[in-house]
Every structure is written in C-alpha cells, then in structure tokens.
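For the sake of transparency, this paper describes our internal protein records without simplification. The tokens are whole numbers drawn from a learned vocabulary of local backbone shapes. One such record is reproduced below, unchanged from the form in which we store it.

. . .
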Amino acid sequence: MRKAKAGPKYLNQLLREVSTFLCYEATADLEMEPCAVTSRLGEEKGQRLANRVAIVPVMRGGLGMLEAMTEMVCNARVYHLGIYRDKKSLMPVEYYNKLPKRVTVQTAFVLDPCPLSGATAIAAIDILKAWGSTADFKLRIKFVCIGASQQAVDNISSAHPDVPIHVGLIDRLHDPDGAPLAPILPGLGDIGDRLFGTDGNDDFDEDGLDGA
C-alpha cells in the first residue's frame, strides 16, 4: 500500500485484504448466542450474533475498509459519516451524517484508515457517543485503522479511553518545525484521494503491483 505506483484498483484490493485481518481481530469478542439451524436433513445447533452491529466508515478513506467489514459481519448496518479537517482552523468539520434517529445497535465500528493526529477519529467517536446517549443502553464503540501515527493513537486513547483501537501499523510523525499537519513517515498518503484517483498522481501502475 505504501508503493507510490499502486493505483486505485490495487490500493482498494490491498485495503480490503489488510482490513480483513484487522476486522477479524476487532470482531473476535462479539457476543454470540445459540440458535437452531434447519438443514435439508434435519436441525442442528448453531450460533449467531447476540446483538446488532453498525459499521461507520468515515468518508472517504473509510469506504476502502467497508467491504472487508461487511463480509465479516454480513448483517451489520452501515452508517456513513463525512468529516474533513478545515485547513485554517484545523478543526474537524462534519459535512455528512447518516446515523438513524433511533439507536438500535449495541456495537459500532468506526473505520478510518490512516489518522494523522486523530482529530477526525475523535470527532467521529464524539458524534457516535452523542447519538448513543439517547439509548437506554451503553453503545459500545471500537476504532479500526490500517495505520496511524503514535500521536494519533495517544490522542484518541486520551480523548476516549473506553474505545479499543485496532491498528495495523504505527508510523512516526514527521514534524521538524512543529507543523500541525506534518505528514506521517513513511505513511500511506491520503487514502481517500489515492483510492478515488484524486491525488493528482497519474503515474501509477495500470497492470499490476510488480515493477518499480
């Protein structure tokens, strides 16, 4: 995924593959309950999820992780959140919210592939907690990302110590001059732009991932 010439098609493929492993870990402790399964030859005891689950991709990058998660939890609800970081104030701005009015899920997985400072992730979790506060039960929230800076992990943990973080890799934050939007090194780039081909880079490998 780090490879500069990995175009949208292959980045999407790699995101899905890595997300599958992360989602497996993130869903490992979901509560199960017994159920009866009727086959053509009789009835057998099985298991199913005891509670309803929501998947909340933060657009646009989180969409690249969505397919893997929905395959892992095939009956999950999908609620989209759109959040961007204002270039002047550096504050997260919500521009899209498809959370339903009524809270009917017990667990929500927030998908955001590569948090830089964690501000967007924190905002998404804030939104979910405010939404979940209207229910008569405590909404359980988990955060899943492909990569992050250590600063992002620390910031999210500090703001929401009750939210488990499932992260694939931790890179360093390149911040020689104290710049608030310093890049992660070596990082993955802007996943949203790379995933949809809007990063201005047309020099990617059309045929595969092999080669320079």
Observations:
- The first strand starts at residue 32 and ends at 39.
- The first helix runs from residue 8 to 26.
